[in-house]
């Protein structure tokens, strides 16, 4: 079968489409005929050898943690355990399979597999409410655009923040009531003006770095700050003395307490919401397997919008 091999950590060009033996399903596993595989920012860091939380392993290796395709005569999505997705076939644990609801495209289901459960889990933690001002960073991304939709559905007034006009357009289409471009040095002042100088009730911080720190300063007294990503390269680490003094509740994915079955249940709920039309993933770009290097380069250059998928 064809698969994208990484034989040496380094630039995107190190991802090479190759012929490899078919995987063999072990005990409790099934084979998926892959239709599409997801590509994530973390995978670009793994490929480059810069992702500190996942130590280098023996190479060559096939990246890819989320796939959509067919298994046991069913249309399914599944995680792979972290590796193997950039291929025409992959062996996965049978209990990881999630059926794709009728009427939902496999690519849409895949786009929601990780991002949908993440957005639902964050919303459960941070509880956006009617009338609140909610700032969503990276609002044109896979998770960010879903957070905009979920907070808007809860009746919140969402400020979508992003770093390009196409990404801001996605945030607007997702329901954002206002938009700010955080490439502009005065973007925090724009947020303060929108909120009447009070600040926002809730921040979904998926960027970190200087943007995350600025967003924390925009959180009003008694507000909530939800950390879930580090697109800038560094996670926001709020000062406990500051947040305690201002009465700010800090939450994040590290506090999301669900076992594997509970996480799969969240993903299935996201798929059901999409099938019913209440949740819409954003697939910004797709590439054939042979162009996996281009997909990685696009993400690293901050030129991707929403989800990036490889089509097998």
Low-confidence stretches: none
Question: What coarse outline follows from CA principal-axis ratios?
Answer: globular
Q: How much helicity do the residues have?
A: 25-40%
* Series of secondary-structure elements, N-terminal to C-terminal: EEEHEEEEHHEHEHEHEHEHEHEHE
Quick one: how many beta strands?
A: 15
Q: What share of residues are in beta strands?
A: 25-35%
| Terminus-to-terminus distance | 11 Å
Structural class: alpha/beta
Largest sheet: 7 strands, mixed
Alpha plus pi helix count: 10
Average pLDDT confidence is 94
CA gyration radius, whole angstroms: 20 Å
Describe the structure using short key phrases:
globular; 31% helix; six-stranded parallel sheet; 312 residues; alpha/beta
Quick take:
The chain has 312 residues and is an alpha/beta fold.
Question: Could you outline the blueprint of secondary structure elements for this entry?
Answer:
Elements: E1 2-6, E2 15-19, E3 29-39, H1 41-48, E4 66-71, E5 74-79, E6 89-93, E7 98-99, H2 106-113, H3 115-126, E8 133-136, H4 142-153, E9 157-162, H5 165-173, E10 178-181, H6 187-194, E11 200-205, H7 209-217, E12 219-227, H8 240-246, E13 249-252, H9 260-275, E14 283-288, H10 292-300, E15 307-311
Parallel strand pairs: 8-9, 8-11, 9-10, 11-12, 12-13, 14-15
Antiparallel strand pairs: 1-2, 3-4, 3-6, 3-15, 4-5, 5-7
Helix pairs in contact: 2-9, 3-4, 3-9
């Amino acid at each position: 079968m064809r698969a994208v091999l990484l034989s040496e950590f380094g630039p995107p060009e190190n991802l090479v489409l190759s012929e490899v033996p078919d995987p063999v399903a072990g005990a409790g596993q099934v084979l998926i005929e892959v239709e599409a595989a997801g590509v994530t920012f973390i995978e670009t860091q793994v490929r480059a050898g810069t992702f500190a939380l996942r130590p280098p392993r023996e190479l060559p290796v096939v990246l890819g943690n989320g796939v959509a395709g067919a298994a046991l005569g069913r249309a399914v999505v599944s995680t792979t355990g972290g590796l193997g997705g950039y291929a025409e076939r992959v062996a996965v644990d049978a209990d990881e399979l999630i059926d794709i609801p009728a009427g939902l495209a496999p690519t849409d289901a895949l786009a929601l597999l990780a991002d949908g459960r993440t957005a639902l889990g964050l919303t459960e933690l941070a509880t956006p409410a009617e009338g609140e001002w909610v700032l969503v960073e990276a609002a044109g991304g896979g998770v960010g655009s879903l957070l905009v939709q979920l907070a808007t559905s809860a009746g919140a007034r969402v400020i979508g923040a992003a770093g390009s006009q196409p990404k801001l357009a996605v945030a607007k289409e997702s329901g954002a009531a206002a938009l700010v471009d955080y490439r502009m040095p005065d973007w925090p002042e724009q947020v303060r003006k929108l909120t009447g100088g009070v600040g926002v009730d809730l921040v979904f911080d998926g960027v970190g770095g200087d943007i995350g720190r600025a967003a924390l300063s925009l959180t009003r007294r008694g507000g909530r700050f939800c950390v879930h990503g580090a697109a800038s390269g560094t996670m926001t680490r709020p000062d406990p003395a500051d947040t305690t003094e201002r009465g700010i509740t800090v939450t994040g994915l590290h506090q999301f307490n669900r076992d594997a079955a509970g996480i799969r249940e969240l993903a299935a709920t996201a798929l059901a919401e999409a099938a019913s039309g209440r949740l819409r993933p954003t697939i910004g770009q797709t590439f054939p397997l042979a162009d996996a290097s281009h997909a990685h380069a696009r993400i690293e250059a901050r030129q991707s919008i929403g989800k990036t998928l490889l089509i097998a």
